[in-house]
Amino acid sequence: MDAQKECVFVSEKSKIFPSTRLFFSFLLCLCFVALAIGTSNISQSMVCMVKKPDSNYSCPLAEPEVEAVPCNHPKQFAWSSIQQGLIYSGQNFGSLFMFVTGWQADRLNGKWTIVAAMVFIIISNALLPVSAGVSFALVFFLRFLTGVGDALLSPASSSMITRWFPPKERPSALGIVTGGRQIGTLIILPVGGWLCGSDGSKFLGGWPAIFYLSSVVAAAVLVIWVVFSADKPSKHLCISHNEEAYITRKIEEENIGKRKQRKSTPWRAILTSKPVWVAVAALVCHEFPLVIMLQFLPKFFSDVLGLSNTVNGLVSALPMGILFLSKCLSSSLASYLTANGYMRKTQSCKIFNFIASLGLGICIAATPLFGALQQSVWAIIILCLANAFAGLHTPGVQTALVQLAPAFSGVITGIAFTVAACFSIFNKLLISQILTTGSKQEWTIVFEISAFVAILPVFFFTLWGSAERTEWASNRVSIPKDADQKSNESDSSTSSTIQAFAKYSMFLSHDLTISA
């Protein structure tokens, strides 16, 4: 029996479809769907929660023995533009913890880290409708907790991607996983628009239902994640011996090492690495204009184009759908080009990022030219095109971030998104300050600033960006091979049960039977 186990055949290639690692990427995608629903819900609900600044409606005088009804809806709040900006940016304040969580992401169990992230998202959304009527500070704190959930999820998922996927498959994996953000936004915006409308407002009071729904979705994803996920391939019930061996061999070529074999984080090398900071700066320039797409787009459609709540929700979801398709298609194309030798990793990242930044900047700059109700169709088309270009950042700078040092991808991701969160806070507060009345002129300023930032990576990332593994990226220390090696021996009846279960899984590409 032992001799047979020593002779397991490992093929040079292992199909990604169908496979357990593809199934795992869908599980991570679901987590990002729940995160996006729990974070993007504020963009549509804010339109319904806040009182309009100017109203000519006056209350009728109260009649004797008749209770006066307040003019304003009891669930609308007179928040100032600064307060609205703080609520929008509350999530980003929580995301600042990504620096700490990213540092530990490569050391902690990714599965249970994501469980904690889901719990934060569930609690923060479930309590927000009640807290909104009590205190603005409570709303800010709950949005802060939502950001903490993001700070736990993003580095953990990046670290798990480097453990589950060989280098050439990571662009595709990133496209699927992070595409969950767009799927979640695509779901919550039209649903939120309907709940804010006259028909949906009868259901759980309108906008509060948006947050309750977000909490329920996160709870459902949490159950699915706990049952079907695993921290690494060797712990997953449904993975074949051949696929596990293939992943292990490909990743060992990067010298990542195991948790118990890890050397200390090379902070000096990371913080002085030019490719790391070039990628971080490019990520900031990518995330900066997306603040409009993810948080302020419903407000733009309401302020400038004058769309109703229901139509607003549907139209706001269109650019998110385009962004998701663009990410998936471009990431698959990048994986194909690099896997078949048509492009090197750095060349692929630079080309995709160049097209993304240039196209995104031009489209955002052109949007204010169509800022009128009669031109609303063209404005929507331009914004959809902008998101199509933005999707190319996934095989661009986002892939470069996880390729530079796979062993420390959690640390680098934590640093990158912490810096991006700082700029997002500044951006949201700046936009809230500019949009005091929501006029077309104010929105033009917002779009032009974002366009300028978006186009910067065309120059510096194209010149100095890199996706090649750095010389300090090895995470292995020299220790004897002893107890850390996992034993492959198990009870024969248990093994037979697992094999029978796995054979009938649609996600497996290989039989578990060991070849002699």
TrEMBL record:
<dbReference type="InterPro" id="IPR050382">
    <property type="entry name" value="MFS_Na/Anion_cotransporter"/>
</dbReference>
<dbReference type="GO" id="GO:0022857">
    <property type="term" value="F:transmembrane transporter activity"/>
</dbReference>
<feature type="transmembrane region" description="Helical">
    <location>
        <begin position="207"/>
        <end position="228"/>
    </location>
</feature>
<keyword id="KW-0472">Membrane</keyword>
<dbReference type="InterPro" id="IPR020846">
    <property type="entry name" value="MFS_dom"/>
</dbReference>
<protein>
    <recommendedName>
        <fullName>Major facilitator superfamily (MFS) profile domain-containing protein</fullName>
    </recommendedName>
</protein>
<dbReference type="GO" id="GO:0006820">
    <property type="term" value="P:monoatomic anion transport"/>
</dbReference>
<feature type="transmembrane region" description="Helical">
    <location>
        <begin position="276"/>
        <end position="297"/>
    </location>
</feature>
<dbReference type="GO" id="GO:0016020">
    <property type="term" value="C:membrane"/>
</dbReference>
<feature type="transmembrane region" description="Helical">
    <location>
        <begin position="351"/>
        <end position="370"/>
    </location>
</feature>
<feature type="transmembrane region" description="Helical">
    <location>
        <begin position="376"/>
        <end position="392"/>
    </location>
</feature>
<feature type="transmembrane region" description="Helical">
    <location>
        <begin position="404"/>
        <end position="426"/>
    </location>
</feature>
<feature type="transmembrane region" description="Helical">
    <location>
        <begin position="446"/>
        <end position="466"/>
    </location>
</feature>
<feature type="transmembrane region" description="Helical">
    <location>
        <begin position="22"/>
        <end position="42"/>
    </location>
</feature>
<keyword id="KW-0812">Transmembrane</keyword>
<dbReference type="Pfam" id="PF07690">
    <property type="entry name" value="MFS_1"/>
</dbReference>
<feature type="transmembrane region" description="Helical">
    <location>
        <begin position="317"/>
        <end position="339"/>
    </location>
</feature>
<dbReference type="InterPro" id="IPR036259">
    <property type="entry name" value="MFS_trans_sf"/>
</dbReference>
<keyword id="KW-1133">Transmembrane helix</keyword>
<feature type="domain" description="Major facilitator superfamily (MFS) profile">
    <location>
        <begin position="29"/>
        <end position="469"/>
    </location>
</feature>
<dbReference type="InterPro" id="IPR011701">
    <property type="entry name" value="MFS"/>
</dbReference>
